[in-house]
Amino acid sequence: MGKGCVTVSKYFLFLFNLIFFLSGVIIMGFGLWLRLDNQSFTAVLNNSTSVKVVCYTLIGVGAFSMLIGFLGCVGAIYEVRCLLGLYFTCLLVILIAQITVGVLIYFHKEAVNDEMFEIVTKVLDKYPGSNSTTEQAWDFIQRNMECCGWSNKGDWDVNMVIVNSSRLLFPCSCQNISHATGNFSTSGFCEAQTPDWPVYDVGCAVSVESWILSNMWFVLGICLGVAFIELLGMILSICMCRNVQNGITEEYTKVPKYL
Hints:
8 helices
């Protein structure tokens, strides 16, 4: 490989690492959003071990990708063989980890669905109408997705407040707007005039599943894009390592002493 090709490879590698760094920022930001957002379905699942693992994995992979992208940029610009070798090794580890996580999620999706169902059932059972973070998230889902309960409105029949009340109570966030008269609340419990609640008949399971699948495709698209960048970075970094080793590029004097 001639000097010109090495130079082109160096700047291409720098560009790929810059994109890789930005991809790490996106992945970490998405993980933080899933973990901290109080207005989405993940807030209802905040006690789920699986959801926490996914969130922290995304945050960790994103932060690690940012670090590797930075090292790759420095190694490419200054042509430091040890950094390029370390960069190649870390990319290989990340790629293997991504494939492993994807396989585990695919083969354990039924277990994740079962855990999600159990958590939602507990939320409905113990919903006290105290406007907590979890309740706000569930009210947000029912109100905006125009649904009631997990499978249907009958899931609320086990709620302790409704069961123990002498009045005909129903969750206000389930109230069908087309049947509402006057002012109505969007959280807590409301009193019905008849045993037939003025609520949506559709359960939230289908809508929530669609929301999760939409976000999973978004995450999958990011992971595939990052994997493509990783492969290109691995190819360019190993090529530069070989040329530096062969003495074609001799610019170690340009490397700052702190490296």
